[in-house]
């Protein structure tokens, strides 16, 4: 599954938000997952299309797709200069696909800010500096290893060295590795370093209860920064999320309506994460189970099948595909087939958001 790491300075509301995520996940926990570590929260991705499909197919069970949030503690100003960011921190953050950077935008005299005042842009800079330094460290270590091996004249090492030097320049200028504008090929050459600042970022502005409506100047600044960087930003209120996480489906809807909100902050975080990672959803719709699956935009049919099981990918023969709208308009597979709207697609088919799929494969 896709993983989003949560980072932030102390006292910005990380634990509050993470706890809301975990209890929201526990609430809907009918997943066939094994034991989950305490710093991992699995949440379902809300998708009204799933309910529409279920209403037609009437399956035994309905399973939404999920996204994992990983609480990555240990980021403080100066961390990478002193003892260094802990190995545990680095180990966790290297594994995630995207980073949610929680920044404090709520004023509350009872909650001390580590730097004395609420200033989200300064917080973002502190975090970026720490992550930059961690990446520089990783990169220098690799570069010095390559230099030792350079005599071998290995072309691939040479190519990697060139990319690393390019990235080093960007990092030294105080910018994240993702600003280096690497080509796909270049990215591939340095992929195994798992550079932290190469990962996409979602800024989560943690606002006061009263500031959820309208736009607080703090939040506006965070949004501007995100727009400049091609990142995503959402405003959420940790305190309210904690309350929402305690409610079940109907109560939750009522509470949101009362607050004048369309969906919870957590739902907005998930949507933004989807956007940021270029993720889309396809469905399988059988009488046993109607289920949503997450893939990347541009994934082809065999890769999509591989999300269900690696054997589906290896033995892929073809896929039967019905577009979501057609499936709903024809009230199901039989109707769609009658109208000639069930397509047979091969291994080069690029899966579209909402596709209802059935895979044929060899075992
Ligand atoms: P962490 O150190 O980043 O994990 O921060 P915590 O989640 O422990 O929050 C630090 C303090 O800020 C706690 O006392 C929270 O109750 C408080 N806090 C968190 N979110 C909000 C919020 O949205 N509004 C207000 N007023 N306080 C909050």
TrEMBL record:
Keywords: ATP-binding, Magnesium, Metal-binding, Nucleotide-binding. One of its GO terms (cellular component) is cytoplasm. Pfam families: MMR_HSR1, YchF-GTPase_C. The keyword Magnesium applies. Residues 278-361 form the TGS domain. SUPFAM superfamilies: P-loop containing nucleoside triphosphate hydrolases, TGS-like. Residues 2-256 form the OBG-type G domain. It comes from the Bacteria. Its cofactor is Mg(2+). ATP binds at residues 11-16. GO terms for molecular function: ATP binding; ATP hydrolysis activity; GTP binding; metal ion binding; ribosomal large subunit binding. ATPase that binds to both the 70S ribosome and the 50S ribosomal subunit in a nucleotide-independent manner. Belongs to the TRAFAC class OBG-HflX-like GTPase superfamily. OBG GTPase family. YchF/OLA1 subfamily. HAMAP family: YchF_OLA1_ATPase. PANTHER family: OBG GTPASE FAMILY (PTHR23305), OBG-TYPE G DOMAIN-CONTAINING PROTEIN (PTHR23305:SF18). This is Ribosome-binding ATPase YchF. The gene is ychF.
